[in-house]
Design goal:
This protein is an alpha/beta fold and 301 residues long. It folds into two domains: 152 residues, Mannitol-specific EII, Chain A (3-Layer(aba) Sandwich), CATH 3.40.930; 132 residues, CBS-domain (Roll). It is built from twelve helices and twelve strands. The strands form three sheets. Strands 1, 2, 3, 4, 5 and 6 form a six-stranded mixed sheet that branches. The chain has a three-stranded mixed sheet with strand order 7-8-9. Helix 7 links the parallel strand 7 and strand 8. The longest helix has 15 residues. The two termini are 22 Å apart.
């Protein structure tokens, strides 16, 4: 089903008056009110703000996706507002938010809500779409624009609906120091290893870095009085600019495709007790599915 089929003219504003995201959300909710939809709007707004406190829903590229799963609503509501001037809220990429896509869904609906959110995010990832959105002058034109992109909503929840599209990766020629810095900077426990064509080669984790410092860790476990001539971590630090990823990374990893059902991958993650599965398309790295994201997006919402 085309994403545009879920949109309604009366729930789209191509001329938001608000100057910040919180006010923009309230302006969009007002459209529902004038439409005659009976809701506990204070409770809905509280749910949206609670979700914003957990994580800022400004996506980047000029788009924001405030949303909430709340029993204050009984069906999925999609409201879109366009601010030609741009909102005043700070964004990670420095591009002002021009398009606010508000999603409200009851807690019992997960699949359609996530796929709709994923579809809107796919539309936002194409940087040329923001300019086209700002050029439309009516709600029907905006719906037509989204329809022409061919963004669809699948029948089942797929990996592409939950996966992270931006994957932190290193190459075999990068150094241990570069890996450690990237892990620290982005609070990561593992990085994908790719070649110059973005082909997935393997994975390097914080465990691999520690093992590089403690190659005889089994001896340490079996004999706590095992003595060392040098401090292992100090020696590792001396070599951090010389040790390459090619010496440490593992080619043992789990992989899936964007169009695999999320339940299949989730079951595999539980069975094998793994935290991440890389997503490839023709061997090229296109995403990563983290166990915590299944919890955050599917279960928490």
């Amino acid at each position: 089903m085309n994403l545009a089929n879920l949109l309604m003219d009366r729930r789209i504003s191509t001329d938001l008056k608000s100057t910040n995201k919180d006010d923009a959300v309230q302006e969009l909710l007002h459209m529902l009110s004038t439409e005659g939809v009976r809701l506990d709007y204070d409770a809905v707004m509280a749910s949206i703000r609670e979700r914003e406190e957990i994580e800022n829903t400004s996506y980047g590229h000029g788009f924001a996706f405030p949303h909430a799963r709340t029993d204050s609503v009984s069906e999925l509501y999609i409201l879109i507002g366009v601010s030609h001037k741009g909102l005043e809220d700070k964004t990670a990429d420095g591009i002002p938010v021009h398009v606010v896509c508000l999603l409200l869904t009851p807690s019992t609906i997960a699949k359609l809500y996530l796929q709709t959110l994923s579809g809107l995010a796919a539309f936002a990832r194409d940087e040329s779409n923001l300019e086209q959105v700002l050029a439309v002058s009516s709600a029907p034109d905006l719906i037509k624009l989204i329809a022409n992109t061919g963004v669809s909503v699948d029948k089942e929840l797929m990996v592409k609906d939950v996966m992270r599209h931006n994957v932190d990766a290193v190459t075999p020629d990068d150094t241990l120091k570069a890996v450690a810095n990237e892990m620290f900077r982005n609070r990561l426990s593992a990085l994908a290893v790719v070649d110059t064509n973005n082909k997935l080669l393997g994975v390097i984790s914080d465990r691999d870095l520690i093992r590089a410092a403690l190659p005889d860790y089994k001896s340490l476990i079996s004999n706590l009085n095992y003595s060392m001539d040098v401090e292992p971590f100090e020696e590792l630090l001396k070599q951090e600019d010389k040790i390459k990823v090619s010496q440490l990374y593992r080619d043992e990893y789990e992989v899936t495709t964007p169009d695999t059902r999320i339940v299949e991958v989730a079951a595999m993650m539980i069975f094998k007790d793994i935290r991440r599965v890389f997503v490839t398309d023709n061997e090229n790295l296109v995403g990563v599915l983290l166990r915590k994201d299944i919890v955050n997006m599917v279960i928490r919402g």
